[in-house]
Amino acid sequence: MAKKKKSAPAPLVVPTTSYASQNGHGGAKKAHKTRDSDCCSINFVKYVLHIFNIIFFMSGLVIIGVTVWTVLWKHHYVSLLSTTNYAIGTYSLLAAGLLAVLGGILGCCGVWREQRALLLGYTFILLFVFLLEAIVGGLAYLYETQIELELQTSLNSTFMEQYGVSERQTEAIDRMQQEFGCCGAVRFEDWRHSVWLRSRRKDLIRPTEGRLVPDSCCISVTPRCGRSDRPSNIPYTGCIYKMADDLKHHLILLGAIGLGICVIQVFGMILSCCLYVKLKNVLD
């Protein structure tokens, strides 16, 4: 009788668990971050950025106000300067103020609607205004140290050669002498060597008619009061140093506004970038 052949034992099956399954990922789709993920929620960043936008908008209005006042009240003296640094700095800061107002409005819309395109444009405006204000502020402080030397080299020749010849510069000199209570560039005797007094031309914008100094030199301006150069009638101090002091104070103000406000905008750029990244993680 033949022996019955033994069958081979069945293989042992050991259940395996993948690393991905053990870690809860498997084939499932990666979960999005929520609005409250990380250290700060989206709503918190939006709230802080809204506060910043209000400050940014108001700073733009302040810049516009200061620069418009500068243009209205100081533009008469620009023709007396040998360079355009003062005018360029003023108008550049005015452009920064207008962009700040526009950026504040754009930022509020971007934050309110949570639109990343608006936030990106807002961030670039912040960066551009930051650079513009930093450059203008730095140049204002640099120019403040040079303004007196520039006036000494240019204003004296303007008084001597252009008064009575150029209408724009004649009006600027008259306005300066009345506003600052001064006479001449360095001293009142400067007028004795001027084209206005020595040429005796009859086609001058301000005829001499026996005057020793322009009527704008007089403490109390009346017709032909410039025929007397006594100290009771005219100031003996020149205009260079008084105008230099006035422009220095104004340049310091423009520099402080430009540099001070541009520092604040660093926080705005950080907040807007933070909100942009958070919205990207939630919406993508």
TrEMBL record:
InterPro entries: Tetraspanin/Peripherin (IPR018499), Tetraspanin_animals (IPR000301), Tetraspanin_EC2_sf (IPR008952). It comes from the Eukaryota. Keywords: Membrane, Transmembrane, Transmembrane helix. Pfam families: Tetraspanin. It is found in: Membrane. The keyword Translocase does not apply. It is a multi-pass membrane protein. GO terms for cellular component: plasma membrane. The chain crosses the membrane at residues 51-72, 92-112, 119-143, 251-277. Belongs to the tetraspanin (TM4SF) family. This is Tetraspanin.
